[in-house]
Amino acid sequence: MKDLVSEGKSVGGMTKMTFGNNAIGPNYMGMLGAKYQLSEDAWFGGLYGYSWRKISQDYKIGGGRRVTDSSIDLSKFTDPDEIAGTTTSPFNAEHLKQKTTSQLAKLEFGTKSQTVSLSYRDYQSELAGRSLKNQNYQINYNLHPEDSRWLDLNVLYALNQGKQQYKKGARINNKYLLDNLDIENKAETFNIANTFRIPLFSHTELETTFGFNRLKNRYFKNRHPAELNFNLENGETNEDNDAIGIGAVRKSLYTSTFQPDGEQRFNTFYWDNSLTHGIFVLDINANINLSRYKGTRFKYLPFYRQEIEEQIYQLNRQHAYNEANVLQEQLEKLEAQYCQYIPDPDDPEDEDLAEFECADKNISTESKGKHRLVNYSATLSAYIHDLFTPFVSYSKTHRVPNVKEMFFSTLGDYGVNTDLKPEQAKTVQIGFNGFKENIFTDNDKLGFKALIYRTRVKDHIFNVSRAAPAYVRGRTIYHKNYDEKVKMNGFELELNYDMGSFYANLAYAHQNNTQPISFTDASTRVDTASNSGFNEQGFGASKISILPRDYASLELGTRWFEKKLQIGGVMKYYGKSRRASTKFTNILYPNSTIEKETLRRDETVPKQPMIFDFYVSYEPIKDLIIKLELQNAFDKKYTDPLDANNDSASQTIFNLDFGDKDISVFNNYARGRTAVLSATYKF
What DSSP line would sit under 573-625, residue for residue? Predict the structure, then answer.
């Protein structure tokens, strides 16, 4: 509100419009706010904003060709299916067209000692056969009497609802939906905290915050899309068990590749402290996180009975009779509900001749669990000089596995792993920063920061492909904890200088990361002609999240005519990076030739050429800024290492004319030379 309505005014607003070539825009945004002074101490205000954006990916890359054009000569192919399977286009641009709209509304009431606000956000779009809608409702309250060191109370409640609807006939992993499919993610957040500011003794003050945070996250859908089982042909469902042998078994098994249903609750008690003594500041933070989860898994009844019977047998051998009796009761309840005796047709009265038969179906079951975790961090800094403030920090944090990781399975429930341990990260940082004005001139500013860090992650969660039990005869994707510690080391540098008529900003980061690659980080094409490719799908379940080995940016600019005209440019550098590969490493059981797990390997994305962006902005009248940008000015062909499509299935091709194996390509190029014109007006 304060940013929109200037001090002393009752109405304010801003608008921005953007136009560009090479599939940019048009986009626009408008926002209007009003503030009314009820009395000397009280005021009331509100704002409303609306934005519309057109998104297209049918752009030209460096050199002139469109990103969707294949980099391989396809003129010798005549079969449309063969052409589609051989093209190296990273995506279908038609499927990625979007026209997104978003709205923001807010009401706020305040006095000198308290503030309360209500806000609403709405986002809507359509993408690749699905409609998306996200709505957020939030209330904030702050109570802070001016003369109180003991009361600074903040309360927050937020409700976020994300919905996606896939229309009948939509294509998902090369399968077609037989009916509409609606999925929803509903999250509720409640937070309450109070801050105390306590003077202890001379030059020493303690600021401490006690708080409680509750988060409830729920994932659900209106039906289980059995037709998306990748073991089935299009149009079939798991209930169409007309196959025989192994095929019939695999067809009968449900899959949970499409947003497993489940719920997570997090209750966090936290305590944040900042102790200031002279030139020293010590920040100590700690929290206790109590989390619970539950999720849906599918048991195939014939195998489920077999598993329970095996467990009962093993428990009886171990003389654990009480546990065995509990399982026996569970088995009898299952059989009473889903099984029956079929009389012999020749002698229906003889019960000894009756056959015991159970339904050939999948049963929805629920698994629950909980975690109790303690996180903490400490940072010590010393203000020795404006240009030298060293600091050192240590933290221990956790991340609990989410519902998707625990309950994702491509074959029955044999990929479900509710025994996943939370990830644990320990990080040490050492560095220094500085900021000082009037260094070389009367109005310049110099700021900088340098740090090195070392992180060790225990029980990192990733996934592999592994064999299901022998009687299932299939493979599934399985999330597990990494046996080794993931090592992350690096350093970061930042330098900023501004003297009004000239400014410069430099940033550089370098890191090493031993994070393993998940099986679902990459994929072969869903329509691949390769016999093995069909079982190598990643289902879009994850993306590699490793930063480039090093990257940097340098911005230089000047200001003229009382800073109304600004001219500048940015140089961007990306070093080598990693992406998931279609190649694998097979892990065998000890002293055996039997395959235990299949791990996906990675490959190197080469260092990219320097990318230069230039811009000029002008303020012809107060608060009207017109800006012209020339992005990738020298029209370089390059790949953005952080683009999610780097590991997409389209980055591999298979065609017998090129060989009998999948071939990796580097074809996910970013935009070539692009001009963007924008105008922003604030009133």
Answer: EE--EEEEEEEEEEEEPTTSSSEEEEEEEEEEEPPPPPEEEEEEEE-SSTTEE
Cα 171 to its chain centre, rounded Å, is 22
For residue 8, the model assigns a pLDDT of 76
Distance (Å, rounded) from C-alpha 224 to C-alpha 261?
Answer: 9
Query: Are 668 and 608 spatial neighbours (Cβ–Cβ below 8 Å)?
Result: no
Q: Using alpha carbons only, give the angle 275, 279, 282 rounded to the nearest 5 degrees.
A: 30
| Band of residue 658 on the pLDDT scale cut at 50, 70, 90 | low
Largest CA distance in the chain: 108
| Residue 139 · residue 117 · CB < 8 Å | yes
Report helix, strand or coil for 308. Answer: helix
Q: How many helices (H) and strands (E) in the chain?
A: 5, 32
How many C-beta atoms surround the C-beta of residue 62 within 10 A? Answer: 18
Q: What is the pTM of this model?
A: 0.91
Choose between 230 and 157: higher pLDDT. 157
Burial of 585 (0-12, 13-18, 19+ CB in 10 A): exposed
Cβ within 8 Å of residue 670, ≥6 positions away: 61, 62, 632, 638, 639, 640, 643
pLDDT of 78 strictly over 70 = no
> E strands along 180-313, which residues?
181-201, 204-221, 262-277, 280-300
**Distance separating alpha carbons of residues 78 and 153, to the nearest angstrom:** 71
The tokens 């952080």 sit on which residue?
Answer: 642
Taking CA atoms, 463 is separated from 273, 396, 522, in Å, by 38, 24, 12
Asked if pLDDT for residue 459 goes beyond 60, the answer is yes
CA distances from 233 to 154, 236, 527 (A): 55, 6, 12
Closest CA to 155 of 142, 144, 145, 146: 142
Average confidence (pLDDT) over 582-599: 84
d(CA 283, CA 479): 36
| Distance (Å, whole) CA 133 – CA 162 | 6
Task: Find the angle CA(210)-CA(213)-CA(219) to the nearest 5 degrees.
Answer: 170
Please determine, for residue 293, whether its predicted confidence score (pLDDT) is greater than 70. Answer: yes
Compute the distance between CA of residue 505 and CA of residue 555 in angstroms, rounded to an integer: 5
Amino acid at 476: T
As a whole number, mean pLDDT of residues 79-84 equals 64
**Residue 466 Cα to chain centre, angstroms:** 25
**CA 548 to CA 559: how far, in whole Å?**
33
Residue 683 has pLDDT above 70, yes or no: yes
Nearest to 139 by CA among 106, 113, 165, 161: 106
pLDDT, position 389: 97
